[in-house]
Amino acid sequence: MPSPAVVIGVDSSTQSTKAAFIDAGTGEQLAVGRAPHVVTGEGGARESDPETWWRALGDAVAAGLKESGLPARAVTGIAVAGQQHGLVVLDGAGRPLRPALLWNDTRSAPQAAALTEEFGGPSAWAERTGSVPVASITASKWRWLRETDPANASAAAAVRLPHDFLTERLAGVAATDPGDASGSGWYSTAGGAYDPELLDLLGLDAALLPEVAPTGAARIGSLTEAAARALGLPAGIAVAAGTGDNMSAAVGLGLGGDGLLDHPVLSLGTSGTVFAASRTRPTSTALNGFAAADGTYLPLACTLNCTLAVDKVAELLGVDREDAAPGGEAVLLPYLDGERTPDLPTAAGLLTGLRHDTTRQQLLGAAYEGAAVTVLRALDALLSACGLDPGAPEVAARPLRLIGGGAQGRMWVETVRRLSGRPLVLPDSGELVALGAAALAAAAAGGGDPVALAAAWRAAGTDRRLPPVERDTETWERVTSVLDRASGPLLGGT
Ligand SMILES: Nc1ncnc2c1ncn2[C@@H]1O[C@H](COP(=O)(O)OP(=O)(O)O)[C@@H](O)[C@H]1O
Ligand SMILES: O=C(CO)[C@@H](O)[C@H](O)COP(=O)(O)O
């Protein structure tokens, strides 16, 4: 039997690379290769060497090829979806000048505040770019680099986001897409292009940046001979522009601008993200109004402390991550990395309500509750900013799609179900970011609309649907009351 035409969707996220091998005709996941990343840094620093992402991509592709048993010649296209916002600076030969600053590096918080002020305040930024600078936004990181490491900032021959860096390694072409570009802070969602006024403010030469391809589906080039040798794939196969990981998850779900407000998404990874979609350009200061990969928009809110923070608490307590109980009186805000939503970049974790009879299982449960309430509050704020009343019965009853590594965990699912009171949908495709990237690759290789393609791939699937349980408002109120009272000086706010 001839081999199916196969595409590879790559998810280069904070903790690892996943390479999904997908049958381009049916959407069947044939194999997933994985390889870990290394994140370093103390205090607010979070860095990774971009060369390790490139090596992890090679390792993940090799592992996927082996698992699938397919001949490499079956592969017809590849696309990369990457963790958003990271700042990669390269020399003239495309080599990293220094480790990349990651999205969850909070050292650039003072630069974010200064930039917000200098450009006329939060509304001016949201109107132009869709987002108000916080430490995560790449523009804040570039300002930090210029102030803190001026030698490498002035030596930069190219400035990239993580997914553009990898795409360029594949195709030898400097290209990005509007989705990931919209998280940089120097791309105007109003104008659909890099913003000269913002580039001026940042002292960033547009010549250092990649071209913005029309959408993430565009074929921006072909796999070079060098990349083909490094990955063991055929030279000349299609390389798509790719996109940011959250935009790619939206594609993987087969949801474009019309579908997502009815079915908001909660991603449980290192970051907790909530996103919906909109055909209207978001300009609220309360969220990130990113561009989506299909020409629509992706209103999104993101927390810094989700699965990794809860795993750290489990490790400190010496219990398995699934061995948790509801927190009882204990409230634990696991803001181990500072926090982005709410904007508390210098916050640390906070524990209250400890008693003699508090168990380790309750403490771990309290960490799940603290992380879950934080991201579910961000969901309410996002729905409000999109013109919906999150408390209205019709809106509160909308199902929430749970994705990301944490969605594999029983405790995460139970905690989100109990604290949201919403019906949950657990998509049957585990690796939605990689699946979205595979749809972008398939469209680049064979034409068609990636969102429609992914929707067709997923049509035969059987998503798990969980009916709502009564909302645990007592815990919600206990956690939010601690958060509201502590958000001032105790958590580093004003
Ligand atoms: N079976 C599981 N149960 C609970 N959590 C899980 C499980 N598998 C993975 N995870 C969580 O998923 C996280 C990784 O998710 P992922 O979405 O890949 O993260 P990222 O995109 O930030 O790299 C880990 O921090 C881990 O806590
Ligand atoms: O900063 C954001 C979104 O704005 C994060 O969602 C990053 O895109 C990293 O995602 P994960 O690696 O945690 O999935």
TrEMBL record:
HAMAP family: XylB. The keyword DNA repair does not apply. InterPro entries: ATPase_NBD (IPR043129), Carb_kinase_FGGY (IPR000577), Carb_kinase_FGGY_CS (IPR018483), FGGY_C (IPR018485), FGGY_Carb_Kinase (IPR050406), FGGY_N (IPR018484), Xylulokinase (IPR006000). Substrate binds at residues 84-85. GO terms for biological process: D-xylose metabolic process; xylulose catabolic process. One of its GO terms (molecular function) is D-xylulokinase activity. Residues 7-252 form the Carbohydrate kinase FGGY N-terminal domain. The active site is at 245 (proton acceptor). Belongs to the FGGY kinase family. It holds the Pfam family FGGY_C. Its EC number is 2.7.1.17. Keywords: ATP-binding, Carbohydrate metabolism, Kinase, Nucleotide-binding, Transferase, Xylose metabolism. It catalyses: D-xylulose + ATP = D-xylulose 5-phosphate + ADP + H(+). It comes from the Bacteria. The record marks 11 as: Important for activity. Residues 320-445 form the Carbohydrate kinase FGGY C-terminal domain. NCBIfam families: XylB (TIGR01312). The keyword Nucleotide-binding applies. It is an enzyme of class 2 (transferase). Catalyzes the phosphorylation of D-xylulose to D-xylulose 5-phosphate. This is Xylulose kinase.
